[in-house]
Each structure stands twice: as structure tokens, then as C-alpha cells.
Amino acid sequence: LPPALTCSLLAPCRVPTVPVKNLTGSSPVNPALAGITGILMSAAGLPVCLTRPPKLVLHPPPVSKSEIQSIPGISHSCRKTTKKQAKKGKTPEEVLKKYLQKVRHPPDEDCTICMERLSAPSGYKGPQTAVKPDLVGKLVKCGHVFHLHCLVAMYNNGNKDGSLQCPTCKTIYGVKTGTQPPGKMEYHIIPHALPGHSDCKTIRIIYNIPPGVQGPEHPNPGKSFTARGFPRHCYLPDSEKGRKVLKLLLVAWDRRLIFAIGTSSTTGESDTVIWNEIHHKTEFGSNLTGHGYPDINYLDNVLAELAAQGITEESLAQEKD
């Protein structure tokens, strides 16, 4: 069947369609499969209507500089970040003391870090610390219990920024920061509506991180890292909830939590800049890949992801303080 075929003369217009990709592409495989499918359906007496799938809408229509607007209630239109040093001056034992209560009679269960019984000494075999391996502590907010020795080891293997995250329930103690490399975040309003948000304009975010050399907080200190796909354009509706998400993303940016250095899940490349568990919409429309609009759940989902990193409306007040 030729790709130009629309509908069978005997078939009504509202017939099932067979989406076919790359009908005009260089590969003959998909058109051939479409033809075979059409022949089989026709042989079975079924109406046939071949259609082209909708195209990916990666970017909005062109926008001139004069059409770009600043975002009311948010100062500036650009945020730069440099490498922030971890807080110094306190030992891991002093940091953890703020978040723990000692447990004199440990429960009859395993420490979920070393998997040894809490009534027995810690099974951690790494570098020794000043904490005795048989001491047990309970985190004050969530109540989960661990060997102190294991918690100190976990803290030393992390960012050592004065915060702690419960390995069982992910409750955050203190202010969590990440290891995002230096870069720039721009944000402004463009005069186009996102699919599913026809009642408002669009917030466009532009992230730009250059390649560089990994620091001591990264997987391979001293080794260079790549930064593929920058600048990266991301989109939010310019609604009340969309602006709330943007304000929280600015906090995440300042805390170096939006990107990290690691191994790309799409290309397998190591020592490269990757997203860090806060999903962004990098396509303006169509949402054929899940990275665009419309998506009625996206704003609520990203608010939950930000909260999992310790970034909530309370964080906005903390930043002002």
C-alpha cells in the first residue's frame, strides 16, 4: 500500500488508524511493515487508514528578545552557582549528636546499614572512628535506630555538609546540599501557552553547565567531566503553582541538587553531568516521550520530588532568613 493512501472508499471516515513512523524516512522497514499491515487488514475485510504520527514538539515558536518578560515576584532573571565548600569545623560525631538519641536497650532487629543485629557490635569494616561499634542511636524525627558507628561511616561517605538523611525512610535532618558543578540558570516568561495550560503563558528555564574537572566531592576527583546537551531548555506554566515550582527549583539550584556527575542512563557515558532525581519537562509539547506537555500530574509530581530532597515552602522562608 502506498503511504499516501488515506481511507478505503468503502470505509467510513471514523475508522481505526494505524500510526506509522518515518514514512518519508530513508529506512524502508517501517513503510514496508505498514504496507503488510494494511494488506492483512484489507484481506480480513477491515477498513484501513494509514496516518503519520504527531511530530515531537521540542521547542515553542520563535520568541524575540522584546517578547521575553521577567517573572513577577522573583528577583533577577539569572542565577549562577559556584562550588560551595562543605561546612567545616564540626566532626561527624558532633553533627550526628544533634539528630540522635542514645538507645540503652536496642530493639531486637537488624541495623539496616550493616545488617547486623543492633544488640551486637556494628558490622562496618571500614576506617575506624572514635565511636564505639556497639553504641546505638535513634533518629529523633523518624525514630529509626542504627549503630552510631554505621551512621558516622555513612556521613563520611556522603557530602559531609552538616545534614543527614535517614537510610530507611529518607527523612532529612539539617539542610541537604548536592555536588552540582558550577553553571548558570536563566528563567523568564515567553508569550506562548503550553498544551494543557491554555490560560497562561510559559516560564522557560535555561540551564547551562560547561565541562570541567571533578572536585573532591565528585566520583573521580581530578578527572575531567563532560556536559552534554547544554544549554537545556525546560518549561513550566506561568500559573500560581508553576511559579511555586520555579521558586523551589531556585532553592534546589542554590543547594546544588538539580544536577550531579555520574553515569548517563541514556548513553552509558560515565563522568558526565546528569539529572539528579528532580524531573524537568524539556519538550514544549506533544509529550510523546513523557518529557513534554500536556501532563496534568507533572507539577504535583515535581513538588513531591523536591520535597524528597528537603525542599518545601518552609525552605523558601529559610532562604530568606
Automatic annotation (TrEMBL):
Source organism per UniProt: Nestor notabilis
Main location: cytoplasm
Annotated keywords: Cytoplasm, Metal-binding, Notch signaling pathway, Repeat, Transferase, Zinc, Zinc-finger
Catalysed reactions, as listed in the record: S-ubiquitinyl-[E2 ubiquitin-conjugating enzyme]-L-cysteine + [acceptor protein]-L-lysine = [E2 ubiquitin-conjugating enzyme]-L-cysteine + N(6)-ubiquitinyl-[acceptor protein]-L-lysine
Gene Ontology MF, one: ubiquitin protein ligase activity
Xref: Pfam families: DTC (PF18102), zf-RING_UBOX (PF13445)
RING-type domain residues: 111-170
Protein name, as recorded: E3 ubiquitin-protein ligase
Enzyme Commission number(s) of this protein: 2.3.2.27
GO cellular component terms given for this protein: cytoplasm
One BP annotation, GO: Notch signaling pathway
SUPFAM superfamilies: RING/U-box
Gene3D superfamilies in UniProt: 3.30.390.130, Zinc/RING finger domain, C3HC4 (zinc finger)
Metal-binding in keyword set: yes
InterPro entries: Deltex_C, Deltex_C_sf, Deltex_fam, Znf-RING_euk, Znf_RING, Znf_RING/FYVE/PHD
Subcellular location: Cytoplasm
Family according to the record: Belongs to the Deltex family.
Highest taxon above the source species: Eukaryota
